[in-house]
Amino acid sequence: MSSLTLQAPAKVNLTLDILGSRPDGYHEMDMVMQSVSLSDEVTLDLGFPGGIRAESGLRFLPNDKNNLAVAAALAFRKATGQTWQDLRIRLNKRIPVCAGTAGGSSDAAAVLRGLNHLTNAGLSDRELSVIGQTVGSDVPYCVLGGTALARGRGEILTPLPSLPPCYIVLCKPAFSISTPVLFRAWDRNKHRLHPDTRGMVDALGTSDLMGIGRRMFNVFEAVLTPHQRREIESIKLSLIQSGALGSAMSGSGPTVLGLFDRDTLAEDAVHTLEATYSEVFLTRPV
Questions:
Q1: What is the three-class DSSP state of 191?
Q2: pLDDT average per 10 residues of sequence, the chain (286 residues)
Q3: 190 tagged catalytic
Q4: How many C-beta neighbours within 10 Å does residue 33 have?
Q5: How far apart, in whole angstroms, are the C-alpha atoms of residue 102 and residue 39?
Q6: Is the separation of the CB atoms in 111 and 73 below 8 Å?
Q7: 93: number of Cβ within 10 Å
Q8: 11 is catalytic
Q9: pTM for this one?
Q10: How far apart are CA 206 and CA 213, in angstroms?
Q11: Catalytic annotation, pick one of 17, 30, 45, 138
Q12: Could you tell me which residues come within 8 angstroms of residue 261 by beta carbon, excluding any fewer than 6 positions away?
């Protein structure tokens, strides 16, 4: 048996834009993504008897191919023509589940990277990303990580200058949001407000943290239900009042992020939000 443990960083959206619907039923996306230090721990035990399965300690998470980590293992095996039959994937979950922070996709990406190492397959990150496309739209980005512009379904990736040193506070309210429902709501409304993605890229290029914070925007916020919107706006307001340079919902939510240039302000924001919310995290860009 061969074993390997990897970190699977969460992702946040500095911007999220929808450019339109596609003939294949998906949507054309335009997003600036960032990895953060909050991460799951993924341990692969290749050759551990029992087939290909995941273990997480969370009863509501599937342990079969409906888990993205297992789906990634199956996709890797098929793409490489390998014949191993047994793999235990142990997931130490720290990233909130169904939170718009790509926890499942990052686990899947870690499985691809780990199996590439354990089996000496020698695939490049680009080749792993192609396999990841068959697993989920965020998986290719999670293979790459860092700061990137994601287009298409999320699989067309352009590395960007790194986010300057800063502090990112994440807060997940106690409800979930259906991604398909959000897309259908956007299809019905097609709001005209869009993020300044070009300006965000330029601000990253000049390490303008204030400009980055000012341009954080997620079009999904406009199509939330009234209850969801009130909760998201309340968290954003709390972050801004605590000194955040900018705040937005990440992905399809409901996690909200705030960008801070000082650790003391970020820590104060965490303490304030912890009085109301149970899932609050102080992170850094990675």
A1: coil
A2: 96 96 91 98 97 94 96 98 98 96 97 98 96 96 97 95 98 94 88 91 98 98 95 98 98 97 98 98 98
A3: no
A4: 26
A5: 10
A6: yes
A7: 17
A8: yes
A9: 0.95
A10: 13
A11: 138
A12: 166, 167, 209, 210, 245
